[in-house]
Specification:
The chain is mostly helical. The chain contains 15 helices and ten strands. The strands form five sheets. It has a two-stranded antiparallel sheet with strand order 1-2. Helix 5 (179-203) packs parallel to helix 9 (304-329) and helix 6 packs antiparallel against helix 7. The longest helix has 30 residues, at 206-235. The radius of gyration is 25 Å and the shape is globular.
């Protein structure tokens, strides 16, 4: 097993502080969202100026397509008949720009122009910007927390000052993505994304959707349980729960269960059940954030080169599925999946209510935090491993600054063009150039490229297999 650096002395305090920041952010934005929500009486529609009209008086010429609370939602009038919006469009090679969409259709030119004018008028007020502030704070907090906790698991306890940490090295494992895995990331990601697109666009099976959502929720609940246990471990200055007595060992998986694990899952399982019943956005974010932290702690990359390969591949993956997929498949695949999947695969940021009283949300995919996060966590491990590590976490801090700037760039372009953006289009060049610039400035390019992180999961499994053979 590789020789690992000793744990930085202030790391425990830093991790607990970032847990606090993340929890306070979730609570603060939840309380703020309450001020955005107010009931709209049944049978009424609230216009943008706050006035109420009977839903039967809704005028599509003035107000656009029928809202969800209107009995004709998803339709428009065509003389004496009603036509579904998705049943009309350009045919026989006709260009989209040449097709005239009728009044009441979401793509009606007059309505789109009026909607764009409204967006431009409200572009820079607080109500339009607060979802972006919410996004920035949560994304930066979860990546910082995940990177620091990853370093906690990676580093060794001090032999004299951390004697209470009785966890064995092989009990706290982290995977490390290799070059071959990095090349396959975009391929596997594309296969999963397109499979979900087919299910949600064409099959429209409620059972398949429910099973997939339930599977994701179960994974997130499990992650939340693990994170709660590991939070207690950090609080007690330990990497794991080895100091607690094992109540039972799960058969086949050989996983020890302590009373801390039991308490953690007793707290996390009700949240998962609550989400399945309500699809509440706060429960969604709690589970999504927890899943991100878990991934950042236990999934890493083996080297800087591997990270660059992974980021560049996912850069083209993100750009194609957001910008190029519509011309190939007739729909924006990424947006279709992100808005259609009712599972904690993205963070949701409340913007405002629609006229029916339903909250509208901005979204950020978990991959836009996990993918750059595992690259940045490698830099954090390099920070405590390099010979001149006295300037605490310089690579981490600089790369986090440029990561934040990349998110700001994404948000600004989204606001200006009013169009979904592939966040990795901006994140990838920012963090590669930013991190490499630090290495050039410190004359550590060769050392950084030569830094290797061992995959302890593989090594432990190999050791276990050897033990079985020897017995």
């Amino acid at each position: 097993m590789e020789k690992r650096p000793v744990r930085p002395r202030d790391l425990r305090t830093t991790i607990l502080s970032w847990y606090g920041v993340l929890c306070l952010s979730v609570v603060a934005f939840f309380l703020f969202s309450i001020t955005l929500s107010h009931p709209v009486p049944d049978g009424m529609f609230e216009k943008s100026d706050g006035s109420l009209i009977p839903i039967g008086d809704f005028n599509p010429v003035e107000l656009g397509p029928f809202p969800k609370c209107h009995p004709r939602f998803g339709e428009h009038s065509s003389g004496d008949t009603w036509v579904k919006n998705d049943e009309i469009g350009p045919k026989n090679g006709e260009l989209e720009a040449d097709f005239v969409y009728p009044v009441g259709h979401p793509k009606n030119v007059a309505w789109m122009k009026k909607r764009e004018e409204k967006i431009q008028q409200n572009k820079l007020n607080f109500n339009s910007l607060h979802p972006s502030l919410h996004l920035l704070l949560l994304a930066v907090s979860v990546v910082y927390l995940g990177c620091y906790h990853s370093v906690w698991l990676y580093s060794k306890p001090h032999p004299q000052l951390d004697k209470e940490d009785v966890e064995k090295d092989e009990d706290v494992n982290q995977s490390a993505i290799q070059d071959g895995d990095a090349y396959m990331f975009p391929v596997m990601g594309s296969a999963v994304l397109f499979g979900l697109f087919v299910v949600y666009k064409y099959l429209d099976s409620d059972w398949i959707k429910f099973l997939f959502s339930a599977y994701v929720v179960i994974m997130c609940v499990n992650g939340l349980g693990i994170n709660l246990g590991q939070f207690i471990a950090v609080y007690l200055n330990s990497r794991g729960l080895g100091k607690f007595k094992t109540i039972v060992t799960i058969p086949y998986f050989d996983v020890p269960v302590t009373w801390v694990d039991v308490v953690a899952y007793v707290l996390s399982i009700p949240l998962g059940l609550f989400y399945i019943q309500t699809k509440n956005w706060v429960a969604n974010n709690v589970m999504g954030l927890s899943f991100c932290v878990l991934g950042l702690k236990h999934i890493g990359i083996s080297s800087y080169k591997t990270g660059v390969i992974m980021l560049c591949g996912l850069f083209f993956y993100d750009v194609f599925w957001v910008f190029g997929s519509k011309s190939v498949f007739g729909s924006n695949v990424m947006v279709t999946v992100a808005t259609g999947v009712e599972a904690p695969i993205k963070l949701m940021f409340p913007r405002e209510q629609d006229g029916c009283g339903n909250m509208m949300f901005s979204m950020l995919g978990l991959g836009d935090m996990v993918v750059p996060g595992i690259f940045i966590s490698l830099l954090a491990k390099w920070d405590i491993s390099r010979p001149d590590a006295n300037d605490s976490f310089m690579y981490l801090h600089v790369t986090m600054i440029v990561y934040t700037l990349s998110l700001v760039t994404t948000v600004l372009i989204m606001i200006v063009f009013n169009h979904a953006q592939p966040a990795l289009l901006y994140i990838v060049p920012y963090i590669i150039v930013g991190s490499f610039s630090v290495a050039v400035f410190k004359r550590q390019v060769s050392a950084l490229l030569g830094f290797i992180v061992e995959d302890t999961m593989i090594s432990v499994e190999a050791e276990a297999e050897e033990d079985k053979k020897s017995k």
